[in-house]
Design goal:
Chain A is of the alpha+beta class. Chain A contains six helices and five strands; from the N terminus they run H-E-H-E-H-E-H-E-E-H-H. In chain B, strands 1-5-4-3-2 form a five-stranded antiparallel sheet. Classes of the chains: A alpha+beta (149), B alpha+beta (345).
């Protein structure tokens, strides 16, 4: 059960290099920021990584108007215009999955963020598309890392 | 230097628990915090900090749960974690409560499974399901309507059966679990032999584990070619959406918001729609369902052909490890196909 000191240090050193988001196939993270704070920071993070915010879908509004109980829930759509256009023109089969999106919702005082791992969703033999997918993953990992407490 | 040597000596002479829990805390933050919460009070995942849970869950149970997960019940299998990392994670989870971890015998309990089946249907099936499939609505956060901090676990789950020894299941039945709906069946009139019979029955689930939806052959997108013009296809699609009892949310260009209005591609149009009853059900099944939202079909004119396209919800849902969500997505795929065919007839 007990780790040797060396192994513990090795583990700590390794862990400090990994992103602070979750699960194997999807990115998920929790922040103790309130929903409005987290929402604001998410939008800033998206922009600071060079992406444009396409729009924000308010999921909760329609639900509460229809009489259902729910808490704050949004879906944030974003992308880089040139990349989205290029993929849409050359690989239209991926249009239904674009622009990229992050779901953000409150859970009591915390806020949760979730998105899919682009490398799990998208695949291609095209070197240019592969490069785009890899960068999407890297950028989304970084955004989630920044958003994590 | 003297300080560093002193620090090292301190670590060597004291227990390594501090190092374990420090590593564990980092691993917890990376892998668990999103679902189980910063202090283990639960959310999408179960409340690990529950005193009664910690008093009944052995280290072996926790380690195997991390290792094998709960197939089809949201909790993923963390196969890439090393043994040391799993140990560190368990050490950290133990800091959430003061309970002493139990150690159970791994010996199987031999008893009358047939009698156990009768007792199970009378006493357990109401919460755990007729076949031990667990309560409905896996992965419900506290932001959604929820009366209790835990949903009855699936007992016919491979991960559960690999993690819980017969003795642990027996202890849970005998003692109940304070803070959850699980009562003590010793106090509720069962004898120790009855409880052993129920344990023997639960163990029979290993022989008939539920099969999962196979998504390997699923296409990642759906498309139907339209013989109508682009504009007529969009109009027809909207009618078909309404005809299937969905509410139109908005119609926009595919690149809306990313480019100026005058630069938008007029031959790629997205139609968003919703059925709020279904949406509410979907969020109850899995709060992470936002990645599928809102329902959407896209009309694309490409190389002279007009097509209606959609994601295949099953391509996305299998990443969520949630069988209930898979079932919903199967229905959603059929709905997409009906709408797409209706629009292009």
């Amino acid at each position: 059960m007990k780790l040797t000191m060396l192994r513990a240090f090795a583990l700590l050193a390794g862990l400090s290099l990994v992103a602070a988001s979750v699960a194997e196939d999807i990115f998920m993270t929790r922040t103790q920021q309130t929903f409005p704070e987290a929402m604001l920071e998410l939008q800033q993070q998206i922009k600071s990584h060079g992406y444009t915010l396409s729009r924000v879908q308010r999921v909760d509004i329609g639900l509460t108007k229809s009489g259902y109980k729910t808490d704050k829930y949004r879906v944030v759509f974003f992308g880089k215009a040139d990349e989205i256009k290029w993929v849409g023109d050359n690989y239209p089969e991926w249009i239904p999955y674009l622009p990229l999106k992050i779901a953000i919702f409150s859970e009591a005082q915390d806020t949760l963020l979730i998105t899919s791992d682009p490398e799990e969703i998208f695949f291609s033999d095209d070197a240019k598309f592969k490069k785009i997918i890899t960068r999407w993953k890297k950028d989304i990992s970084a955004i989630f890392h920044e958003m994590a407490d | 230097m003297r300080l560093f040597i002193s620090f090292c000596l301190l670590l060597v002479t004291s227990s390594y628990t501090l190092a374990d829990t420090h590593v564990g805390a980092m691993l917890y933050k990376k892998n668990c915090i999103a679902c189980h919460g910063a202090s283990g009070k639960g959310g999408v995942g179960v409340p690990l900090a529950l005193e009664s849970f910690q008093a009944q869950a052995s280290d072996r149970f926790l380690k195997n749960t991390i290792r094998f997960g709960r197939i089809g019940r949201v909790m993923p299998a963390f196969k890439s974690l090393s043994e040391d990392e799993v140990n560190a994670l368990v050490a950290y989870i133990r800091t959430f409560a003061k309970a002493t971890p139990p150690v159970y015998s791994q010996q199987p309990i031999r008893a009358n499974a047939k009698h156990g089946a009768t007792l199970f249907s009378q006493n357990c099936a109401a919460c755990h399901g007729d076949h031990g499939q667990g309560g409905k609505g896996t992965g419900v956060t506290f932001s959604r309507p929820r009366d209790l901090p835990i949903i009855a676990p699936a007992l016919n789950n491979e991960g559960f059966l690999k993690s819980a020894s017969d003795a642990m299941i027996q202890a849970t039945l005998q003692q109940g679990r304070k803070g959850t709906p699980m009562v003590s069946f010793l106090e509720n009139g069962m004898s120790e032999q009855d409880i052993n019979d129920v344990v023997a029955y639960i163990r029979t689930f290993e022989k008939d584990l539920p099969t999962r939806t196979n998504v390997d052959d699923e296409p990642y997108y759906l498309e139907v070619e339209s013989s109508l013009s682009f504009e007529k296809t969009v109009a027809s699609l909207k009618q078909a959406v309404i005809g299937e009892n969905y509410r139109l949310i908005r119609t926009q260009k595919f690149d809306y918001g990313l480019v100026n209005v005058e630069q938008e591609d007029p031959k790629k149009v997205v139609v968003y729609f919703c059925n709020f009853k279904l949406l509410n059900e979907a969020l109850t099944v899995d709060p992470r369902v936002g990645l599928f939202l809102p329902c959407r079909l896209t009309v694309v004119e490409h190389k002279g052909k007009v097509k209606i396209m959609a994601i295949n919800p099953l391509h996305l849902s299998h990443f969520f490890n949630n069988d209930e969500l898979d079932n919903l997505c199967k229905g959603m795929r059929e709905t997409y196909e009906v709408i797409m065919e209706g629009a292009t007839l």
